[in-house]
Amino acid sequence: MTVLDLSAIDATPLQTDPFDFIVVPGCIRPKDLASVNRDYPDIDRPGNLNPEDVSFGPLFQSFLEELEGPEFADHIGRKFDLDLSDCTTTVTVRKYCERSDGNIHTDHPSKVITVLVYFNEDWSNPEGQLRMLRSASDIEDFAAEVPPLGGTLLAFRRTDHSYHGHKPYVGERRMVQMNYLKSGRLSQWKQQIDRLGTRTMKKALRLLQPRA
Description:
globular, alpha+beta, five-stranded antiparallel beta sheet, about 25% strand
């Protein structure tokens, strides 16, 4: 089963304001989205998790293999005029968003391209919609706003000004994130260390919050 509609990526123009990105609604067709969602990982807590740390069904496994495959890398690479064939990838999956998520940031310098795929079958909330921002300080100064609606793919080039974030949202927000990383073990190691630090900090903040 082929899940991703690569022709939809090819047909989507590259946006350059305020940095290079594409938004591809319907990159997963509705009928395929429903099937993959039935096999979506069984997650009961917020945070980005490694696929090997959660359980899921075979259709979701097929989606992950397709996402990390050379054909997908070729289509994304051509869209951003990059050769991604030598890049390694990291993949995380999440199901729940917490209030501390969505702060404005640019992603780690080890990343070349970030790819996000959303899985919620509907989305009516004004919060939780990722914004492509023009600065590090103003969440309202955005060039595009992307609701995490199932089947939508967002990909952007990481730069020192690739600011993005969303207004706080608490609840189910299904998403898979894949990053193409710069070649070299040092880059990959540094990203893993920084990710561990972020997870530890969030855990500490949750412990310090007063309980209702």
